[in-house]
Design brief:
Layout: H1 19-22, H2 25-30, H3 36-42, H4 47-56, H5 66-70, H6 80-85, E1 114-118, E2 121-125, H7 152-164, E3 170-174, H8 183-194, E4 201-205, H9 208-211, H10 218-224, E5 230-234, H11 244-255, E6 260-265, H12 274-286, E7 289-295, H13 310-320, E8 331-336, E9 341-344, E10 350-353, E11 357-361, E12 367-371, H14 388-396, H15 401-405, H16 418-421
Parallel strand pairs: 2-3, 3-4, 4-5, 5-6, 6-7, 7-8
Antiparallel strand pairs: 1-2, 8-9, 10-11, 11-12
Bound molecules: pyridoxal-5'-phosphate and iron/sulfur cluster (SF4).
Residues 115, 117-118, 121, 123, 172, 342 line the site of pyridoxal-5'-phosphate.
Length: 427
Amino acid sequence: MTIRFEDIAEGALQGASEPEKWDDWHWQLRNKITKLDELKRALDLTADEVAGVEATLTKFRMAITPYWLSLMDPHDPHCPIRRQAIPSQSELHQASSDMRDPLHEDVDSPVPHLTHRYPDRVLFLITDQCAMYCRHCTRRRVAGATDAAVPQNAIDRAIAYIEKTTEVRDVLLSGGDALLVSDDRLERIISRLRAIDHVEIIRLGTRAPVVLPQRVTDDLCTMLKRYHPLWVNVQFNHPKEITPASAAACTRLADAGIPVGNQSVLLRGINDSPTVMRRLVHDLLKIRVRPYYLYQCDLSQGIEHFRTSVGKGLEIIESLRGHTSGLAVPTYVLDAPGGGGKVPLAPQYLLLRTEKKVVVRNYEGVISVYAEPEPVPPDLAVPDPVSSTEQQQRQQRAEGIYALLSGDRISLEPHDLKRKRRGGETG
Ligand SMILES: *Cc1c(COP(=O)(O)O)cnc(C)c1O
Ligand code: SF4
């Protein structure tokens, strides 16, 4: 059973006890909590929380849906639901490694609101609005900056870029929260993308199913399913977020044929524990949501208190892989500061590799050897289906470390290497 808002805040919100209002996402948004006095009326705040909200609101936005508020433990300031939503004074701490745009999303941006980092896919920020402003948000320089829709001419320019850039086969609509635009507006964007031949798949990045599950209406699903193949990624960080309402939202998406993936952020004191993570990934599979990524927390401003070590993330993956369904194990990624993109991090299972043998360990600690294939004697060999010219072409295309293996290069060096400038240039 869903806990209704009035259970915590009797009479604080007009209409909270009327299901037709509670279940209307516009009502939820209209009644978002954005100010300290509203929050005080709804919840017994600790002195620290009051100070945190007061100080932080001068710098960052706060928004909490009545639904999210209803999930908070009114007696526990460490409640994971509370900590993701209620500003704390730690957000004002500027760590030495903090950056405004750690992932260089604004740098790798050929047109405003669009980041083209990877060869074949783009990130298209269609709004800066979110139903809830997550305290750990990596894109907090954007999220809530204007709390307004992106102007139509900016949308047009971004779509024009995708149209003329034929290598883009995957468009990821995000924000903000991609589902905080109206069905009509969203459909206008999606239908135009669908009309572009080279755009194979469209993805939506949204936390609405988690923080505003009422947003996932039947009408929305009916519209979305007309534009398949369409994928949705959500963000559940803690098992407490899986409620009858959020489960129903994910079910509606899955029933519309939309595969739903989850991108968790590793957060200190919230989910940086193998036990919590294991419960989360199991509960996600039960609602047909596939754990996709576990993100190492970025170097965005004022979120150092949420960060935990890479060692902790590896320990969590170690505790999952092999011990439970492979479907439950997300890829742990670190988004490299400066625009390097997502780098997968995994415990070391490959212990040794020689030309002929590979030594691995498994989740139980069993160490095994695997023999690499040896050349088949020429009289028994089946001709290679790939022609030799094709093979040559493939080798010519070898890049990065593979160029070392193919013999095309003997070293890879940073551009403008200091050592090389020290007079050796002519030699
Ligand atoms: C995460 C991200 C994507 C999508 O990455 P996948 O690994 O394909 O999910 C695309 N563009 C940018 C800029 C991203 O940060
Ligand atoms: S929903 Fe996403 S973009 Fe919006 S505040 Fe949360 S983490 Fe940031």
